[in-house]
Amino acid sequence: MTEPRARGAATGRRLAIGIINGAWRPRVLGAWRVPPGGPVILAVNHTHNVDGPVVLGTSPRPVHFLVKKEAFVGPFGPFLHGIGQVRVDRDGTDRTAVTGALDILKGGGVLGIFPEGTRTEGDFAALRAGLAYFALRSGAPVVPVAVLGSNERRGRLLPGLPPLRSRIDVVFGDPFPAAPEGAGGRRTRAALDQATVRLQERLTAHLKDARRLTGR
């Protein structure tokens, strides 16, 4: 990971902290579970466009998210690049994005991924293989993250945004490897499929626990 990209992500975190805490009331649970150093992958459920910024502003470490190329339009493109985010084309295998993400992990950074690939019900019901690939290829532990309340519709003053000053819960889970101990670093199709199933089970269990913990 390049030093400018790392500095950019640190700047992005500071900006997000100010914006998120000014607009809403984030409640962060389990942030201490994020390893303080070394490569980490944050696997985040995704129901609203603010989920990425919310995690940027609540994670204890700067995060580099894989962000769809459609977001890099007009002035947002240079801005997102400047705060260390990674542009990805979801229509095929984006080798530039893959290399950039692996470089972040190789450099000991934090990579943020929405493993379902797009906004959904946020229940981790359909994971793409990307999360398993990055986790197996890098050996980085995966930290499940549940963002709850960002898709609240009641009381909105601004269309498309959660109600201002509403509570958004961010619950970090325990880090875990994509492959069970002793499985080695295999990256075959079978290994990816097995890792994806394992990841989905762990992420779904974390989301269930987070909902019970927060009452959401």
Protein described:
38% of the residues lie in helices and 16% in strands. With 216 residues, the protein is α/β, with parallel strands linked by helices. It has a single domain (3-214), classed as Glycerol-3-phosphate (1)-acyltransferase, CATH 3.40.1130. Strands 1-7-6-2-5-3-4 form a 7-stranded mixed sheet, sandwiched between helices. α1 crosses α2 (51-58).
Secondary-structure blueprint:
Layout lengths: L2 H21 L1 E5 L10 E5 L6 H8 L5 E5 L7 H7 L3 E3 L6 H12 L3 E4 L16 H9 L3 E7 L18 E6 L16 H26 L2
Parallel strand pairs: 1-7, 2-5, 2-6, 3-4, 3-5
Antiparallel strand pairs: 6-7
Helix pairs in contact: 1-2, 5-6
The major beta sheet can be summarized as: 7 strands, mixed
Instruction: Please state the overall shape, judged from the principal axes of the Cα atoms.
Output: globular
Number of helices: 6
Could you tell me the number of beta strands? 7
Over the alpha carbons, how many angstroms does the gyration radius reach? 16 Å
CATH topology: Glycerol-3-phosphate (1)-acyltransferase
